[in-house]
Amino acid sequence: MIQRIQTVYLFLVFCLMVTLAFIPFSFSWMISLDAGIVAGLAIITIFLYKKRNLQIKISYIMLLLLVLAYILYFITNQQLLVFSEIKYTFIFPFIAAIFICLAIRGIKKDEKRVRSLDRIR
Q1: What predicted TM-score, i.e. pTM, was given to this entire model?
Q2: Between 29-46 and 52-76, two packed helices, what is the crossing angle to 10 degrees?
C-alpha cells in the first residue's frame, strides 16, 4: 500500500484539503465542508488498494467535488475581479486535482499490470 506512488498522491490531496478546510479566512462553510469531504474520500481511497476500479470511481468523484469547490469559491467571493484579493489557497484545489489525475494514472497502470499477469497464468 505505501510503496505505490498513487498512495503518496492521495495523501498529498488529503493534506491539501485538510489545510483548506481549516483555514478560517475568506471561505464559506460550504467550501470547508467540500474540502473535508474530499479529504475523507482521499483517505478512504488509500485503504481501498485492493479494489482498483472503486479507487478510480472515487477519484473521479473527488475531481467533481474539486470543481464544485471552485464554483463555490467564485459564488462566495464576488470581488474576484480584483486579483489582489485572491488568496494563495485559491490554488489548493487545482493542485489537488493534478495529484488526483496522477493517482488515477497510477491506479490504471496497476490495473493494467495485474490484467497482464492474469493473462500470462
Answers
A1: 0.84
A2: 170
